[in-house]
Amino acid sequence: MIRTAPRRLVDYAPIAWPALMLVLFFVLPFGLMLAVSFFRRVPGGFYQPDFVLANYARFLTAFFGNVLGFSLGLALLVAVIAVALAFPFTYLLSRMRRRQQVPWLVFLLAVLSLSEVIIGFSWSTLLSRTAGVTNLLVLIGLMDQPVSLSPGFGAVLTGMTYQAFPYAVLVLYPSLSRLDPTLTEAARTLGASPLRSFFTVVVPALRNAILATVIMVFVFALGSYLLPQLLGRPQQWTLSVLITDQAIYQSNMPFAAAMAVFLVLVSLALVVLSTLLGQKEGRT
Amino acid sequence: MKTTIGRRGFLAASGAAVAALGLPHIAKAQAKSLKIGVYGGYFKDSFDKHIFPEFTKASGIAVESIAEPTGAAWLVQLEQAARARQAPADVSMIAQTSMLKGMTVDLWAPLDLKKIPHAEAVLPHLVNKYPDGRIAGVGAVSWYITLVSNTKVFPAAPTSWAEMWDAKLKNQLGLLALVNNSFLLEVTAATFFGGTKVLDTDEGILKVMAKLAELKPNVKLWYRDEAQFEQALKAGEIPMGQYYHDVTSLAAGDGQPVRSTFPKEGGINDAGSWAVSKASTALDAAQVFIDYMSQPKIQALLSRKVGTSPTIPRKLTDLTDAEFAAVSSEIPPIIPRYDLYQAKEDWLAQKWTELIVG
Amino acid sequence: MSGLVLDGIAKSFGTVVALHELSLTIPQGKFVCLLGPSGCGKTTLLRLVAGLDLPSAGRIRLDGADITDLPAHRRDFGMVFQSLALFPHLSVGENIAYPLRIRGASKADQAAEVTRLLDLVRLPGIADRPVSRLSGGQRQRVAIARALALKPKLFLLDEPLSALDAKLREAMQIELKLLQERLGITTIVVTHDQREAMTMADLVVVMSAGRIQQAAPPVEVYCHPVNAFVADFIGTTNLLQGQVVAPGRLGLPAGEISVPGLPAGGATAISVRPENLRLHAEGGGENRVAACVTFIRDLGATVEMRLDAAGQELILVMPPADLPELRPGAGVFVELPAAACVVLSP
Q1: Is the pLDDT score of A4 beyond 70?
Q2: What is the pLDDT of residues A184-198, one digit of tens each?
Q3: Is there a contact between A229 and B177 if contact means CB atoms under 8 Å apart?
Q4: Which residues form the domain of B93?
């Protein structure tokens, strides 16, 4: 409730900066992309300002439906796995002494600073037949001969989860380190084993943080286009890969923009939906 | 001072060509500087080191080299700048499909071959012409994509592209991921359909694609990133595929267990052309540059230092057999059907994606 | 025997000794307060009993059974934390039912128990409320109800009332004591508030610097503190240093007095509670010393007077009605009754 409505331009000053940033970094780029998505593609050339729906029409096929479905599913799977791994890790990390936490956080930041290309190359080597981890398994007698694990779905999933893991940890870290440690102790005195208290107290008490992290990692994974093409077969190429192909190799900006707009809208809708569900659940 | 030296150097170096060009032209050109767009990275580094300083010495024209981004981005930039009568580069190295796209909007300034006498020797398929016969571009560099293999995994060299279809090669090939950079339609057509004419019709293209689809189980990696395949090829992880002849030869020379083979159907001969933006005000200097680059000794220098195949017949150059073999072959090449990627771009891209993703 | 026995318990964190070796027996059904300043080791001791930390040495026995190595979740003790540690994602009823749910009790049993416990802490009908919408006192009671849901053998509370305002705290102290008496449950409360300890405890365990200083009923701790720390920490007192000059005679700067239980000789300290001092206009009686009034303040219910007795400060408390006409600077005589003088061990 605002008691006096802003009357003069000056009254809006406090929100001017954030509004400017929002316009500059979100509204303008997205607006441009939206505009281009309706432009007319000039075959074999460029595009012309226009208002055509052809770019969206081309997208609405079973083929792209499948790719979109796969991309969303992959991103969700990556998000769920990354958070499932990151949550207990971050919980244990936040229970360490401050001094022991710092090297881990520095290490995670170092992983974050790795480019997608380096991560992709490292994993394709690690999962290769000639130099990969299976050679170790052969060495200790667990396998008969080394096999190649990349490219493939498992490789894409591994690479993307690896990349998402430090993000998940750093997003979860503040809420987990703020969690009152006596909550788990209380659960223990009330008869819950440490594992049980983790699942009945820590996880549900932080479900909003978990949901927020899953959403963030999901959106992050949805934009990944290098790892699916470095570690995947064509069947694992996500919509982001196809968008990149259209934009860079086919110079079909209108179609690339249309696909990107669609992807943004679908993921936005999913995020809103899951937030609403989370709130509803939180109230009961 | 610099101008004088440059002029003397140019006079000394160019010899007969100078006489043909005439003095007024030189006087005009030497006052200028030229912005030259070259693919960023390896090409730009090599040109900055081996070519541009010599050119400036010879012509008196100062060079500002500009790194071009990959793909069509540079074309889009040039085109948009041209609308504003700006030229981010006067003359640029342009891929063949981009040449065709630029022609549709008259982006390239017509070149006067009289002012580029050395271009006469450039192989005909490397001279870009507008439909009405005007010259849009002249071949700058050309290179081959060949059949490469790991010598440890395959002691005997393959001889034909057809060997890629061998069922024994399941999951062993690395191929370029895009229709307009792998040129696999042309390879398939040349290998199984007697040449690329079959690609003239949509039915022909679909027939070729059906044949290509049989190859899919053999493909382990459809790559966009060249380094990824190169590494896998050297390690034997992906022991066969298509790759750049010059880079593979270099690696073999370094002792890596790889080889590049020109199959009997020919290697894929791709090229970049020099083209001048119509917004450029330095057309004359640009033509001096293009002429300089088309000289046999510069083409030979490029083959030796940059690893590109000459854009002119081999006999005009002083390349030894070994030097020539490192960058090219006498076997007639498979020449990509750039016209298709221009005329049927979206349809081809869509069918291709469905072919390999599906 | 029945009750809790701490036998030679010690606890160190790295090189820091939190608890020196100590032993303590808490009989079944008693209300015990661990009392001491912050950092004295009282919370550490409680956590060892709860099983949240393991002792570095010693054994803990309950009703004869050794529970030293029993993990916290199998001890079945009810504990109330200083932060209360109510689960924010659960309602009041779900919080209270948590230990029952963990043990697989049926929904009906859980509901019945929640109702019973909410009645017990006098908060009926709030089972469905989220804990975030409770007042401080209500949260307190819910935490107590949750800890009691197991019908625990031992009820442990760590500074349970420290977050409440003074009035509510006093009311809760009484309520907690009455509840404990009704249930007959062995209870250990950690507190730094000596009034709280005096109000509730059957046994006060005064701790300082990782050691038990005195463990005794409240009145005894008050009237017969064993050392200067206890005497000073519990209420207000006059700590007087003197020399034993003859058997039963202590020499103070202001004069000699009779004190029972003095050692044979040497320097000795005694404690005399302010309310036990008597004011006289004349000297000459037993245990009277001359003093000079330095300060008087009337607190309404009592009057406090500070005096100087040959360099030693004395504090004297009396009912306002007994206050004679005196001004600071007046010379008086103060009687230190022999029965009220407690000899402190060094």
Answers
A1: no
A2: 999 999 999 999 999
A3: yes
A4: 2-137+270-327
Contact status of B131 with chain A (Cβ, < 8 Å): no
Q: With a threshold of 0.90, does the pTM exceed it?
A: no
Query: From the CA of C6, how many Å to the nearest CA of chain A?
Result: 19
Tokens (6 digits) for A37: 């998505």
Q: Who among B71, B178, B221 is closest to A251 (CB)?
A: B71
Chains C and B touch (3+ CB pairs under 8 A): no
Q: What are chain C's domains? A: 3-229 (3.40.50.300), 236-344 (2.40.50.100)
Q: What is the DSSP letter of B351?
A: H
Neighbours of A, requiring at least 3 CB pairs below 8 Å, are B, C
Residues from chain A contacting residue C75 (CB–CB below 8 Å): 189
B201-221 residues labelled b (16+ CB within 10 A) or e (exposed) = eeebbebbbebbeebeebbbb
CB contact C74 to A (< 8 Å):
yes
Residues in A closer than 8 angstroms to B236, CB to CB, are 130
Residues of B in contact with A245 (CB under 8 A): 178, 349, 353
Question: Predicted confidence band at A44 (pLDDT cuts at 50, 70, 90)?
Answer: low
Exposed e or buried b per residue across B153-163, where buried means at least 16 C-beta atoms within 10 angstroms of its C-beta: ebeeebeebeb
Contact C81 A185 (CB under 8 A): yes
- Calculate the average pLDDT of chain A: 86
Cα A38 to Cα A14: distance, rounded to the nearest angstrom: 35
* B59 & B102 share domain: yes
- Please tell me whether residues B243 and B353 are part of one structural domain: yes
Find, among B338, B75, B37, the residue nearest to A252 by Cα. Answer: B75
Helix (H) or strand (E) holding C4: strand C3-13
Furthest CA-CA distance within chain C: 78
Number of A to C CB contacts under 8 A, please give it: 71
CA distance B154 to chain A (A): 16
Interface test with C, best of A189, A207, A208 (most C CBs within 10 A): A189
DSSP at C43:
H
Domain topology for A50-283: MetI-like fold (1.10.3720)
CATH number of the domain residue B321 falls in: 3.40.190.10
Q: What is the pLDDT of residues C257-312, one digit of tens each?
A: 888 888 887 888 899 999 888 888 887 778 888 888 899 888 888 888 899 888 88
pLDDT digits (tens, 9 = 90+) for A141-162: 888 888 888 888 999 999 999 9
Residues of C in contact with A279 (CB under 8 A): none
Per-residue pLDDT averaged across B309-328, rounded? 92
B182 and B55 within one domain: no
Confidence of residue B15 (pLDDT cuts 50, 70, 90): very low
In this predicted model, what pLDDT tens digit does every residue of C310-341 receive, in sequence order?
Answer: 888 899 898 888 777 888 888 888 888 888 88
